[in-house]
């Protein structure tokens, strides 16, 4: 029997290194945002006893949307 793998492109989990590369920020910046809390960075998930940190692509995209700036230095209302 052949095992079939389904790729979940829309909401796959990303490592901090992948998110940092995508956002063009150091991994340490993501760590800093996580420790500060208060929605400073994108939402993340901790997995298992080792507390691996992962980000859902959709959560990062949603967070990015809240960071949009509309002319004259004003943040977009969301």
Task: State the main characteristics.
three-stranded antiparallel β-sheet; alpha+beta; 78 residues; single chain; globular
How would you describe the overall organization of this protein?
This protein has three helices and five strands; from the N terminus they run βααββαββ. With 78 residues, the chain is of the alpha+beta class. Strands 1-3-2 form a three-stranded antiparallel β-sheet. A two-stranded antiparallel sheet has the order 4-5.
Q: What is the percentage of strand-forming residues?
A: 15-25%
Radius of gyration: 15 Å
- Say how many strands there are: 5
Query: How confident overall, as mean pLDDT?
Result: 83
Q: Percent range for helical residues?
A: 25-40%
User: What structural class do helix, strand and pairing data support?
Assistant: alpha+beta
Shape: globular
Q: Number of helical segments?
A: 3
For the largest beta sheet, what order do the strands appear in spatially?
A: 1-3-2
Please trace the helix and strand order, writing H or E for each element: EHHEEHEE
pLDDT below 50 for ≥5 consecutive residues: which ranges? Answer: none
Q: For the terminal residues, how far apart are their CA atoms? A: 49 Å
Largest sheet, in brief, is: 3 strands, antiparallel
